[in-house]
Amino acid sequence: MSDPAKSASYRTQPEPIRAVDLFSPTPLPYRTVSEQRAQVLKEDQEREAERQVRLLSQTSPMRPPEERIRIWEQLHGLSLPRVATHKLIGIIAQQTDLPVADVLAEQTRRRQPAVTTAAT
């Protein structure tokens, strides 16, 4: 039969639950659920810190309008509208701290064909 002391000990000290990262290209060591939770929280905080840096850089007067608008596009997953009267033009200007004229100038610049130089 089984030893009652061993089974009682087993019940009072259960094996920790382990989480596995199924999407990792390389096998990771097993982690407890609390370790996994802490790792996910840390990664979320790092992503949020990076987003805050990007939000600040989209309004930085040290960056040219093209770059500020590109940062806005990346943060929002949208492209600069092609129509000058689009409602997003004012929103982009406000969120990048640019005058609407600068946003419209970038819109015009993007519509112009790229100038290529012939190699000699």
What does this entry show, briefly?
The chain has 120 residues and is mostly helical. The protein has helices at residues 4-12, 33-57, 65-76, 88-96, 100-111; strands at 18-19, 31-32. Helix 2 (33-57) packs antiparallel against helix 3 (65-76), helix 3 crosses helix 4 (88-96) and helix 4 crosses helix 5 (100-111).
Q: Mind explaining what this structure looks like?
A:
The chain is mainly alpha-helical and 120 residues long. Helix content is 56%, strand content 3%. It is built from 5 helices and 2 strands. The protein has helices at 4-12, 33-57, 65-76, 88-96, 100-111, and strands at residues 18-19, 31-32. Strands 1-2 form a two-stranded antiparallel sheet. Helix 4 (88-96) packs across helix 5.
Detail the topology: elements first, then pairings.
Blueprint: H1 4-12, E1 18-19, E2 31-32, H2 33-57, H3 65-76, H4 88-96, H5 100-111
Antiparallel strand pairs: 1-2
